[in-house]
Design brief:
The complex is a heterodimer of chains A (500) and B (475). With 500 residues, chain A is mostly helical. Chain A has helices at residues 3-20, 24-54, 83-102, 110-129, 133-144, 146-154, 159-186, 200-204, 210-227, 236-243, 246-271, 273-300, 304-324, 328-359, 370-373, 375-388, 395-408, 413-441, 458-476, 478-499, and strands spanning 62-70, 75-81. Chain B is built from 20 helices and 2 strands. Chain B has a two-stranded antiparallel sheet with strand order 1-2. The chains are: A mainly alpha (500), B mainly alpha (475).
């Protein structure tokens, strides 16, 4: 059977298996097994993809399949992957597998929890393999809506408010996005066959008139950008992430926000390159604000989850910033940053969840000296922090390096100033990361109860180790991943540079 | 006349036969055993629904008074499916409320007569036939709405319905007479071919549109809706909100695409206006409702505001999208009302607050409710997503981007209040939630049919393509 179809089918079957499971043990085992299979499949996909490329397959998209769906609207169910989507699929598989592991102890309505979580994942996998805007949009919304229940039922703090805010903002964004998609559809009648089409490949071969692009490019970019925490539409992110249960924060910051970046690159930039070059500056300004504002926001926060949520705004802003540079090196950096940030933020949220379970607080003012009692988690937190501030040898460095080098190649003043401003975020990031590490882990133990807490148990250790391996792996062998991605960026960059 | 041609009218003929069987059964069975006619009639109606799908030639009868085409047959079949679900869902309510002097047979007779009226209305080729059909469809409903004799609100709702129906059909008749005055004919074909753009005919169009808009409860003709929906027994409300509204929407489609095709420019702007108004007002009022029936009433008003998106521009694919939308709306709304009916009939509770914590006691009902509400809100992967998407696409294809945008914003607003109900059921805590509701087999069957419809119809691309193949000749 087709590997890509299996990527959607396995989560669906997992959901079915969970819904007929009876005991808690069965539920979490079926979730873990299902997502384990998914991880194996994703790994297999990576190697299958490499093998295809080695055999000299030079198509933009591999494993392309297409089925007739709604003939009257010329809608097909088309799937296919390139290097970018394969690497994001691998990221998703890692994050969801570790997410299931960290949720091992979810007791309240665990069946519903795992079903919602895996329905959400189905949406993410479907989104990354879609080559058709219709199914892409379908999976996009499918990935957002379970979030409402996940945060509303299993969240903490002002969870109902956060859940509603997040859902409405993201669904509002999807409304804008849909308008953009319909604009593309209606103006695609010049595609082969003379019918309007939702197919990304077919649309990419067209030259959409500039006046159309000017209207619909901002809609598409904002529609996806909201999910990528584009300033000033990022406000759902801190509230949502901090109220969500651990696995959901991991998945949301780690993977869902990447859907925003991927969508901006694959749909907004790729299909409307003219407007992207012409109007890109508006969004460059906005994303620069995202990057710097997010970093400053993280400095003043006291809650660990809020700190990390603002840091995500900053890092995801960097992804969008890099994409807008329409330069190959920085686009490469953008994809690397998506993967690196996905892994690193998943690790952060997992660790915060584990620490919170032990200390029952996430306020850094009441914590200190945790390194003495939970050295394993403490060291892991430090590694995540170092990756976040871009220490060489870990994934964050490679990504940011690429972004800044690429961005600085624009010789005009505007791009250079923007790059320098965005670069400053590195310093600010270092400030809040080191401050948190210092107050949280080092120094005296502030609360006597902390002496009693125990270090990580097996499933927590497994989560942390898998994520750290991935982060360090990218940091050590960045070229391998870079090669993997950069070839797939060629068509997009080519299209963008042709317009210039 | 060739009697074989009477097969064109098979929907109406079979239904009339069933109506007669109801009358005969009712007088021949003693009051004690009267409940036993429920399964018999439900099965008969099921057979009727199936029979409707057998392909038969289409054509016109009585000199063009009565016409069938592929699409009218499909519309009748959709209504049949809806009534079948309503009948299945109301079995439990009939058993518990219609004892002693109240008669179950009367209920079936009225529902079926109303359906016959709708069928004639959809198939009409002449305004006289159309008027008879619409009256036959509406007047019996007042009796149904007031059928809970001892409840004040039910009687009040009945009076409200009959008064507003009378007013609307007065306006409708006035429009028809103006049209007759300017054309000298009541036949759809004659009117369509001799339409001039004079102001008297415009006025006639506006009056006729208003008369039908009352039935679909399009703003600003919606004021009766919430009160009647709230006062009527839940099962009747679901009939009103789905079957009655659906049939009126069908005839509106047919009239606009055939009789009034010549003044497309006029009705485009009228539809634009009422669409924005209906969606927005329906949504804003729905947010404030505390009673679940009133809530669903306003939600159904807001849903009606999406229908013009497909009609506007007058494209064939838009026509198909509207029919498809109504088909899916039927399953979604009947699903939601089915849950409300099950709870209301068992416990008498109808406030959204009282649904707090429903999931802890009634898992199945909560899940069906959630599916239905998501489908109404247009959330994938359930069917409502597809129908809304296609309506938006059809409108965008005609270039109405701003209207699509307003509709999308409204869809997001509607998601907010649908989520409030989901929140009540799944998230809110309640010390004293509604206890486990024991549903009889009928209620369960009705809800399962709705749930399957909501999940399956969207993915099945073949259904939309089938509808579209029938509408091909419409333009």
């Amino acid at each position: 059977m087709d590997i890509l179809i299996l990527l959607i089918l396995v989560p669906v079957l997992t959901v079915l298996a969970i819904s007929i499971s009876r005991t808690k043990e069965q539920i979490r085992m079926s979730a873990a097994v299902g997502m384990g299979i998914q991880l194996v499949q994703a790994t297999y996909l990576v190697f299958a993809y490499l093998a295809e490329r080695k055999n000299g397959n030079v198509d933009d998209m591999l494993f392309v399949r297409s089925w007739e769906w709604f003939k009257s609207f010329n809608i097909q169910f088309s799937i296919g992957v390139d290097g970018i989507s394969v690497s994001l699929i691998a990221l998703t598989a890692i994050v969801i597998f570790t997410g299931v592991l960290t949720s091992w102890k979810v007791d309240n309505l665990s069946k519903e929890f795992f079903i919602s979580l895996i329905v959400l994942t189905t949406g993410v996998f479907g989104f990354f393999i879609s080559l058709d805007l219709f199914s892409m949009f379908l999976f996009f919304e499918l990935a957002v809506i379970p979030m409402y229940l996940l945060i509303g039922i299993w969240g903490s703090g002002p969870k109902e408010y956060a859940a509603m805010k997040l859902t409405l903002m993201l669904m509002g964004a999807s409304a804008v996005l849909l308008l953009g998609i319909l604009g593309l559809y209606v103006n695609s009648a010049a595609a082969p066959g003379g019918l309007m089409t939702f197919n990304i490949i077919d649309i990419s071969r067209l030259n959409i008139p500039m006046e159309v692009q000017r209207i619909f490019f901002p809609l598409l970019f904002v529609g996806f950008g909201v999910l990528g925490a584009l300033f000033p539409f990022h406000t759902w992110s801190p509230d949502g992430h901090s109220s969500a249960p651990t696995a959901v924060s991991m998945l949301h910051a780690g993977v869902l926000m990447k859907m925003g970046g991927y969508g901006c690159l694959r749909v907004a930039m790729y299909l409307m390159p003219g407007a992207a070059n012409e109007m890109g500056w508006i969004f460059i300004v906005l994303t620069s604000i995202s990057v710097v504002y997010g970093a400053f926001g993280a400095i003043v926060q006291k809650d660990l989850k809020y700190i990390n949520a603002y840091s995500s705004v900053s890092h995801c802003g960097l992804v969008l910033f890099a994409i807008l540079m329409s330069d190959k090196i920085s686009a490469n950096g953008a994809v690397l940053q998506m993967i690196s940030h996905g892994l690193m933020t998943a690790l952060f949220f997992a660790l915060i969840g584990m620490i919170y379970e032990r200390t029952h607080t996430r306020d850094i003012r009441f914590m200190g000296g945790l390194m003495k009692v939970i050295p394993f988690l403490g060291v892991a937190y430090m590694i995540a922090g170092l990756a976040s501030l871009g220490l060489p040898g870990l994934s964050g460095f490679v990504a940011e390096m690429n972004v800044f080098v690429g961005a600085f190649q624009h010789s005009d003043t505007f791009h250079r100033i923007a790059t320098i401003v965005v670069c400053s975020s590195i310093v600010i990031t270092a400030v809040y990361i080191l401050r948190v590490v210092a107050t949280l882990l080092l120094g005296p133990i502030k609360n006597n109860d902390f002496n009693l807490i125990k270090d990580a148990v097996w499933f927590e250790r497994a989560t942390v180790i898998i994520l750290i391996f991935a982060i360090a792996g990218i940091g050590m062998a960045p070229l391998w991943l870079s090669d993997f991605i950069s070839r797939s960026l060629d068509p997009i960059i080519l299209k963008l540079s042709m317009i210039k | 006349m060739d009697f074989g041609q009477l097969l064109y009218m098979r929907h109406e003929i079979i239904l009339s036969a069933i109506a007669l069987i109801v009358l005969i059964l009712e007088i021949s069975i003693s009051n004690k055993n009267i409940e036993k006619i429920i399964p018999v009639l439900t099965v008969l109606f099921f057979i009727n629904t199936i029979a409707g799908f057998f392909p038969v030639e289409t054509g016109s009868l009585f000199g063009g008074m009565y016409k069938t085409t592929g699409i009218t047959i499909l519309m009748k079949n959709i209504l049949n499916i809806g009534v079948l679900i309503v009948l299945i869902q109301s079995a439990g309510w009939l058993k518990s409320n219609f004892t002693g002097s109240s008669n179950i047979g009367g209920y079936f007779f009225i529902v079926i007569s109303s359906l016959i009226g709708m069928d004639f209305m959809i198939s009409s080729g002449n305004f006289l036939m159309f008027y008879i059909g619409i009256e036959l469809a509406t007047i019996p409903l007042a009796a149904l709405v007031a059928s809970e004799k001892l409840k004040e609100r039910s009687a009040e709702a009945g009076v409200k319905l009959i008064l507003s129906a009378a007013l609307s059909s007065g306006i409708l008749l006035y429009g028809i007479s103006l049209l007759y005055g300017t054309n000298g004919s009541l036949y759809f074909d004659n009117i369509a071919s001799s339409f001039q753009n004079n102001s008297l005919q415009m006025l006639a169009f506006i009056f006729i549109f208003t008369g039908i808009a009352f039935k679909i409860s399009i703003v600003p003709f919606h004021l009766w809706t919430a009160d009647v929906y709230e006062g009527a027994p839940v099962n009747i409300t679901s009939f009103l909100s789905v079957i009655s509204k659906g049939s009126a929407a069908f005839i509106l489609l047919i009239l606009l695409f055939t009789v009034f095709k010549g003044i497309e420019g006029t009705w485009n702007s009228v539809l634009y206006f009422v669409s924005v108004l209906t969606m927005t007002i329906g949504n804003l009022f729905a947010i404030r409702q505390k009673n679940i029936k009133r809530f669903l009433a306003f939600s159904s008003i807001a849903q009606a505001g999406f229908i013009p998106l497909g009609i506007i521009g007058g494209s064939a694919i838009g026509f198909s999208s509207v029919v498809y939308f109504l088909l899916i709306y039927l399953f979604s709304n009947l699903g939601a009302f089915g849950v409300v009916a099950a709870i209301s009939n068992a416990t008498g509770r109808e406030n959204i607050d009282e649904y707090n914590g429903l999931y802890s006691t009634n898992k199945g009902l909560s899940l069906v409710m959630m599916l239905s509400l998501f489908s109404l809100a247009g959330i994938p992967p359930v069917a409502g997503f597809f129908s809304k998407f296609f309506l938006f696409t059809s409108a965008a294809k005609q270039g109405y981007y701003l209207l699509v945008f307003i509709a999308l914003i409204n869809a997001t607003i509607s998601l907010y209040y649908y989520l409030l109900v989901v929140k009540a059921m799944f998230i809110n805590k309640n010390e004293m939630p509604i206890g486990p509701v024991k549903n009889d087999a009928y209620t369960k069957l009705g809800l399962i049919i709705c749930a399957i419809g909501i999940i399956a119809i969207g993915f099945a691309g073949i259904i939309f393509d089938y509808i579209n193949s029938l509408t091909f000749g419409i333009k």
